[in-house]
């Protein structure tokens, strides 16, 4: 018994490595399960999200939350840094979003509440998080969004046209205390696709040290206009893979795709938490 | 890989950063640059040779400026490339660090 305790407290270097590896794998499983939950099913529309960490675990984040007024709240974020430290803060961000989403009216208010909840911790840790939050109204087909220093979504209108949602300012979470966030709304027409993303996509490097950049992303989106969200997701990842060849992925890559089909869109199921099962 | 050079004039120090400011620069900024800079009264950091700053790099820059300010060091940042400054504005970095920091 004593010997066993002793060996647990003072593991050999090999055991230490194994323990660490096991714990990282477990942490990865937890993160992957929390992150890649069920995508909401939308009648006459589709939504999908994917996150590919650069290391075993990452600091990117996306989530969906169905609001009682029938709208869907979408969030995508990028925690400063990579690996385990970023992953820990990503979980903090997820908690802040889930509690804020329930009690706030719009994406701007959600970001304010998230910043209020996280500001002190982020300052203590010398970190910050960029987040874009958007409410999708399936009846009015409007997307209302607010940004905490995050890049704005792209709207793919046709094989010839893609545009970035109009710019709005917003300080990243952890940047300034008690800050408020502007909102803007845009109409999304039938067959159009909204593409939310993190900078791991546009900043993916090839062998010559060249970045993928927004131009290549826009070209890929236009070229694949008309595909369903899963196929589009695959086209984007293939296009990045083809561009980067065998260069190791430097930053986490995350995207959320919302496509409006013909007719009115209704949200039929979602992955928001069951508070009282 | 991030590198830096310094030129000293009386109590003033001009620091020129060179290379991408990203997570790879963490040790250079936190373990070399900050401990060296806290001994000066006035510092300018030139980003002329910094073509790219990612989210980790911005965190390093915030940490650098805030640490020096806490030590009552007067700090300014100059020669930011257009592409980089566009990202700084997106996250409202001038508001966070103080408008007077960027010259």
Please give the radius of gyration of chain B in angstroms. Answer: 12 Å
Low-confidence stretches of chain A: 1-7, 273-277
Beta-strand portion of chain A reads: 15-25%
CATH architecture of chain A: 4-Layer Sandwich
User: Would you tell me the overall average pLDDT of chain B?
Assistant: 90
Succession of helices and strands of chain B: EEHEHEHH
Q: Which series of helices and strands of chain A comes N to C?
A: HHEEEEHHEEEEEEHHHEE
Secondary structure: number of strands of chain A: 12
Task: Summarize the biggest pleated sheet of chain A.
Answer: 5 strands, antiparallel
What Rg of chain A do the Cα atoms give?
20 Å
Question: Could you provide a short overview of the structure?
Answer:
Chain B: Pfam families: STAS. The complex is a heterodimer of chains A (277) and B (103). By secondary structure, chain A is an alpha+beta fold.
Structure description:
The complex is a heterodimer of chains A (277) and B (103). Helices cover 37% and strands 25% of the residues of chain A. Chain A has 277 residues and is an alpha+beta fold. In chain A, strand 3 (60-66) and strand 4 (72-79) form a beta hairpin. The longest helix of chain A is centred in the N-terminal third of the chain and has 23 residues, at 13-35. Chain A is globular. Chain B is of the alpha/beta class and 103 residues long. Helix content of chain B is 41%, strand content 26%. In chain B, strands 1-2-3-4 form a four-stranded mixed sheet, covered by helices on one side. In chain B, helix 2 links the parallel strand 3 (42-49) and strand 4 (74-78). The chains are: A alpha+beta (277), B alpha/beta (103). The interface between A and B is medium-sized, with 21 and 15 residues.
């Amino acid at each position: 018994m004593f010997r066993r305790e002793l060996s647990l407290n003072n593991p050999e270097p090999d055991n230490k490595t194994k323990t660490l590896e096991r714990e990282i794998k477990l942490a990865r499983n937890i993160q992957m399960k929390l992150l890649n939950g069920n995508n909401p099913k939308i009648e006459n529309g589709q939504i999908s999200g994917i996150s590919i960490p650069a290391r075993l675990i990452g600091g990117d984040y996306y989530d969906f939350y169905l609001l009682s007024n029938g709208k869907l709240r979408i969030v995508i974020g990028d925690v400063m840094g990579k690996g385990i430290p970023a992953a820990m803060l990503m979980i903090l961000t997820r908690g802040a979003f889930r509690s804020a989403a329930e009690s706030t009216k719009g994406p701007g208010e959600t970001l304010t509440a998230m910043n209020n909840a996280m500001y002190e911790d982020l300052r203590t840790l010398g970190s910050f998080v960029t987040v874009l939050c958007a409410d999708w109204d399936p009846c009015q087909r409007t997307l209302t969004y607010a940004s905490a220093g995050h890049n704005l979504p792209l709207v793919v209108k046709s094989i010839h046209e893609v545009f970035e949602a109009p710019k709005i300012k917003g300080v990243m979470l952890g940047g300034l205390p008690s800050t408020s966030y502007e909102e803007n709304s845009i109409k999304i027409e039938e067959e159009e696709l909204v593409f939310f993303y993190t900078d791991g996509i546009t900043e993916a490097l090839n062998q010559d040290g060249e970045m993928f950049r927004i131009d290549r992303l826009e070209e890929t989106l236009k070229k694949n206009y008309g595909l369903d969200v899963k196929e589009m997701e695959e086209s984007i990842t293939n296009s990045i893979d083809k561009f980067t060849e065998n260069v190791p992925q430097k930053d986490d890559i995350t995207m959320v795709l919302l496509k409006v089909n013909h007719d009115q869109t209704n949200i039929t199921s979602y992955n928001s938490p069951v508070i009282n099962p | 890989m991030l590198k830096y050079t310094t030129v000293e004039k009386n109590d003033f120090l001009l620091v020129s950063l060179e290379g991408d400011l990203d997570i790879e620069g963490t040790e250079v900024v936190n373990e070399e640059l900050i401990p060296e800079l806290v001994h000066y009264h006035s510092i300018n950091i030139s980003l002329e040779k910094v073509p790219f700053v990612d989210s980790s790099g911005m965190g390093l820059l915030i940490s650098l400026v805030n640490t020096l300010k806490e030590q009552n060091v007067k700090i300014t940042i100059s020669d930011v490339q257009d592409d980089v400054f566009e990202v700084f504005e997106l996250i409202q970095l001038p508001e966070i660090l103080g408008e007077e920091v960027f010259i």
